[in-house]
Queue: 2 jobs
Job 1
Amino acid sequence: MKILLISNSARGEAIAEALLRSQPTPELFVASTVRSLGLMRMAKEVQVMDIDSLAKVVQMAKGIKPDFAFIAPDDPIGAGLADRLECVGVPCVAPKKTLARIEASKGFARNLMKKYGIEGNPRFRVFSFSSMDAKRQLDLDMRHYMEYELKGQYVVKYDALKGGKGVKLSGEHLSTIDSSAQYAMECIDQCGTVVIEEKLIGVEFSLLSFVSGTATVDMPAVQDHKRAHDDDIGANTGGMGTYSDSNHSLPFLTEEDLKAASAFNCRIAAALLEECGEPYKGILYGGFIATKDGVKVIEYNARFGDPEALNVLPLLETDFVSVCQAILKGTLTPDLVRFAAKATVCKYITPKSYPEDKKEKGQTVLVPEKIPENVRVFYGDVSMLDTGTLQLGGSRSIGVVGIGDTLHDAEQAAQAFCEKITGPVRFRSDIGTVESIQKRVDLMQKLRRP
Ligand SMILES: Nc1ncnc2c1ncn2[C@@H]1O[C@H](COP(=O)(O)OP(=O)(O)O)[C@@H](O)[C@H]1O
Ligand SMILES: [Mg+2]
């Protein structure tokens, strides 16, 4: 069995590791943006390339003739790599371009939910213009919507992939109606439309599902930490760390919340089949927020999250290649998927100046050789030189995952290993701590109080 993995980060390494635990052991070929230590150790071949150049990936696939491909990141999925690979006879665990609009267009996702009666949207409108004359009117309409209809509590969303940097919130990134209207117009200038929606209040979480057509099988729920610094302060990042609990729910969620999130993923898969006329095959990532009025949808992604994949994949006890094959064949059933009843905490080691700057790019990071049994280490934007030296890139460097019977054990394991990594790097000490989790539980309790 030959598998082609397309990877740009530590998430790819978590996928590779899970695939290689399958029996019989597959041969893994990787198209990767970085010369990753983990991938070099695990794969039969790693080709370092620009994975957004679809033609190059297709060329590599033609040479290898893999049984299937697994596309990890959003950009090549959104650009239609699955369509291109399937044209040369390589089935993909990743949705085709029309289906991937669930992530690539936030307007498409909101409208799909509305059209198929899937509740969970905040109040929203998708704005666009057809002629230059309409621009002034459009500006007035958007201002009116933000100021009066949404009462100054709004979110402006770029309507295309933007690497997690296209969403701006009133009161946080947008302090005046002028700057908000200006940003909304910039979005329209760049991609034709903009989504403006109600700003929800609550606690966010992710629920990812394996999907094959209308069959969905959930993974453990995960909570991410987007802000750069402890106590959720600072700029938004790709995600500084995540945790998942041994019961596969989260301490601040009710059973109903988790069921609601699961039902959303299921209904989205069915709506996509109906709307696009072909089955979604891959990973569906629901980004949710638990509010006083129940669970609402923040966004959908068409792939594993990074770091979410680092939490859940090490817990997968069943054969990942069999899961992928079932996704491709349309035979996905819950009995194929079982996760260990363990808690995980992932803390991302990043360059010190991340995300604002890339001052540490090219500098060395030292990681202890000996990794404890309850820790997993996944390399992101770190290149291995021929000398074996690990060189930092500008983005998130190393995902350190602690695994334990309780969140506390998992947190301690991740924290202890992170403290041993040296170089011009940092990480968030608060992720997964008892205090940090209690804050989220308290906030949810306060919101739910009548
Ligand atoms: N309607 C909303 N209400 C409150 N916060 C939101 C809303 N939409 C997005 N956000 C915040 O902005 C972040 C990024 O938005 P999201 O839709 O997930 O886009 P992306 O991940 O592509 O940047 C979310 O994690 C959340 O914190
Ligand atoms: Mg998001």
Note: The CA atoms of residues 23 and 319 lie 7 Å apart.
Job 2
Amino acid sequence: MKCPVCKEPMIVLELNQVEIDYCHQCEGIWLDSGELDLLLEGSKDKENVIASLSKKANINEKKIKCPLCRKKMDKIKTDYIETIILDKCVKGEGLWFNKNELHKVLLAGNLNTNNPVFQQLKSIFEYKFKKN
Ligand SMILES: [Zn+2]
Ligand SMILES: [Zn+2]
């Protein structure tokens, strides 16, 4: 699969037994439908975060194409705790996270930062997990 932003081939990484597609170039992440649920397993705010990802955002960011069906994706906005704009396949095939957006969404979900998902993301990206 190619990165929808820079068109480079993405690599598959395993994050707590969930396979994610990761772009080396822009550090974006593609999650197939349902994978965010899996990553948020154990988060007390999981349902709220997932529900918050259904709002379309009215913003002027350049639209990018779904790496699976190639249709232009919707911009969606979650303002659960923090405003984050994501790209979502119009057919519901998955979600695109630009650099740093996945861990922000996971933090918004109040996932315990000792969770293996965070530990692995940290080792891949060297994020600093800091709650404001
Ligand atoms: Zn990329
Ligand atoms: Zn699609």
Note: The chain has four helices and six strands.
